[in-house]
């Protein structure tokens, strides 16, 4: 992911509607992936994650005028907001699941486009999602930002409040942990 | 394995520099979305996971969507206990009213006024908004509403006043009264005292131009002959006194004529501005 151009951000912060619309369109695909990565599928679809990504974009828009005051990189600003929204959604989901039967969570992969390969990918993806839940919050956030969003180690450092070097060490630990976790389940995974 | 072992500042066991570099390169590749060659099973899983995130098309961005109830959409989530009232059907009252009745084309004078208003906003409002900023009829208007709600309030009020003035000019007094009521509601949302003063003055001038007769029951004739217009009554507006009407933002008077002309006002704004409108 290439970070939005600082001039574009500046114009958007100053209230230029065209720049604002362009900016939000630039960050939106990454925000969508971020939310999908954290929230996964419900009922085989990313509908809920996409709703949350919508909220993130609106919240970013509303917070834009205050952006400069915070003195953070723009990506850190965006994913700070996104992290809060995702956490809110996860809390809401927990509350909801506490009172609702789990039948809504259906692991059927979507059979629409390119069924077989798609189903295989979805299956693998779901296994990885499961592995991610065993990581610490910080490690999971780093992996999501690095892989799903595509931020650089430097940008991730800005977002999570660490030096790039510390991010690189942490991401290696996260991968190492994932490999260990995967080793325990790979036996059942066709290569 | 290698000699390049570094003392790590962290409490856990040190990580090999080579490993750190290789992992960093791997994550860079995965993050860019390209397929990673090799037989690294974890890399393949991460690649499949990343690819899976893009399988569904990008959802359309709905500027008017509201934070809390958006979750409850089709995801099957329970909305918040008090979230129901925020689900508002109409997107943008300005747009819908315009599209429903295409009576009022944008005139050069209106454009000039709008541009002038934008300049005033840009200089007086303390927010450096580009003078070419969006107006309520603009496709980018929803963006302005979200990013600069204060500016949007002023422009929306100005827009309603402009439309009311056009209605007065064309002797559509029933329309004018509705539009004036609506503008008064919008003016009540404006925070900047200078803007409020200016907009109220415009509203009062418009009210003074209305005929003295009470609002007739539904005579929406857009093209009334000029002879029918009574002399403008200078005293007070018929439905609301000039001073008091501005302060009372209740939209209820507009329903009395049964026009069905004006849907709820800018439904997206109330929930975006809870501090301004504590109850709506």
TrEMBL record, chain A:
<keyword id="KW-0805">Transcription regulation</keyword>
<dbReference type="Pfam" id="PF04545">
    <property type="entry name" value="Sigma70_r4"/>
</dbReference>
<keyword id="KW-0804">Transcription</keyword>
<dbReference type="InterPro" id="IPR014284">
    <property type="entry name" value="RNA_pol_sigma-70_dom"/>
</dbReference>
<dbReference type="InterPro" id="IPR007627">
    <property type="entry name" value="RNA_pol_sigma70_r2"/>
</dbReference>
<dbReference type="InterPro" id="IPR007630">
    <property type="entry name" value="RNA_pol_sigma70_r4"/>
</dbReference>
<dbReference type="GO" id="GO:0006352">
    <property type="term" value="P:DNA-templated transcription initiation"/>
</dbReference>
<feature type="domain" description="RNA polymerase sigma-70 region 4">
    <location>
        <begin position="132"/>
        <end position="180"/>
    </location>
</feature>
<feature type="domain" description="RNA polymerase sigma-70 region 2">
    <location>
        <begin position="23"/>
        <end position="94"/>
    </location>
</feature>
<dbReference type="GO" id="GO:0016987">
    <property type="term" value="F:sigma factor activity"/>
</dbReference>
<keyword id="KW-0238">DNA-binding</keyword>
<dbReference type="GO" id="GO:0003677">
    <property type="term" value="F:DNA binding"/>
</dbReference>
<dbReference type="Pfam" id="PF04542">
    <property type="entry name" value="Sigma70_r2"/>
</dbReference>
<dbReference type="InterPro" id="IPR039425">
    <property type="entry name" value="RNA_pol_sigma-70-like"/>
</dbReference>
<dbReference type="InterPro" id="IPR013324">
    <property type="entry name" value="RNA_pol_sigma_r3/r4-like"/>
</dbReference>
<dbReference type="InterPro" id="IPR036388">
    <property type="entry name" value="WH-like_DNA-bd_sf"/>
</dbReference>
<protein>
    <recommendedName>
        <fullName>RNA polymerase sigma-70 factor, ECF subfamily</fullName>
    </recommendedName>
</protein>
<dbReference type="InterPro" id="IPR013325">
    <property type="entry name" value="RNA_pol_sigma_r2"/>
</dbReference>
<comment type="similarity">
    <text>Belongs to the sigma-70 factor family. ECF subfamily.</text>
</comment>
<keyword id="KW-0731">Sigma factor</keyword>
């Amino acid at each position: 992911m290439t970070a939005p151009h600082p001039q574009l951000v500046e114009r958007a912060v100053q209230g230029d509607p065209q720049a604002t619309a362009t900016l939000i369109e630039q960050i939106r695909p990454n925000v969508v992936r971020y939310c999908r990565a954290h929230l996964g599928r419900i009922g085989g679809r990313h509908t809920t994650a996409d709703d949350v990504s919508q909220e993130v974009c609106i919240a970013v828009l509303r917070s834009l005028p205050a952006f400069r005051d915070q003195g953070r990189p723009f990506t850190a600003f965006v994913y700070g907001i996104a992290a809060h929204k995702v956490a809110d959604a996860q809390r809401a989901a927990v509350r909801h699941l506490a009172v609702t039967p789990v039948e809504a969570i259906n692991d059927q992969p979507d059979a629409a486009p390119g069924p077989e390969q798609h189903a295989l990918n979805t299956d693998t993806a779901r296994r990885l999602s499961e592995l991610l839940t065993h990581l610490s919050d910080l490690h999971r956030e780093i992996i999501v930002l690095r892989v799903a969003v595509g931020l650089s180690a430097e940008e991730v450092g800005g977002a999570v409040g660490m030096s790039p070097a510390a991010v690189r060490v942490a991401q290696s630990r996260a991968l190492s942990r994932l490999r260990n976790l995967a080793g325990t389940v790979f036996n059942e995974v066709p290569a | 394995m290698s000699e390049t072992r570094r003392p790590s500042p962290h409490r856990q066991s040190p990580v090999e520099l080579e490993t750190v570099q290789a992992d960093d390169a791997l994550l860079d590749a995965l993050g860019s979305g390209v397929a990673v060659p090799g037989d690294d099973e974890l890399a393949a899983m991460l690649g499949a996971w990343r690819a899976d995130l893009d399988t569904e098309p990008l959802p359309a961005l709905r500027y008017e969507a509201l934070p809390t109830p958006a979750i409850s959409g089709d995801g099957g989530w329970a909305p918040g206990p008090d979230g129901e009232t925020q689900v508002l059907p109409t997107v943008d009252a300005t747009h819908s009213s315009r599209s429903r009745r295409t009576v009022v084309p944008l005139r050069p004078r209106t454009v000039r006024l709008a541009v002038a208003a934008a300049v005033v906003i840009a200089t007086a409002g303390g927010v450096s908004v580009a003078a070419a900023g969006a107006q309520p009829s603009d496709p980018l208007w929803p963006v302005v509403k979200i990013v600069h709600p204060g500016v949007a309030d002023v422009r929306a009020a100005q827009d309603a006043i402009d439309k009311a003035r056009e209605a007065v000019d064309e002797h559509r007094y029933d329309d004018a009264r509705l539009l004036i009521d609506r503008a008064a509601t919008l003016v009540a949302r404006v925070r900047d005292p200078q803007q409020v003063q200016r907009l109220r003055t415009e509203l009062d001038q418009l009210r003074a131009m209305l005929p003295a007769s009470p609002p007739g029951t539904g005579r929406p004739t857009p093209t009334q002959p000029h002879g029918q217009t009574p002399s403008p009554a200078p005293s007070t507006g018929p439905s609301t006194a000039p001073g008091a009407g501005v302060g009372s933002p209740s939209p209820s008077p507009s329903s009395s004529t049964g026009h069905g002309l004006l849907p709820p006002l800018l439904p997206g704004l109330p929930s975006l501005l809870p501090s301004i409108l504590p109850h709506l």
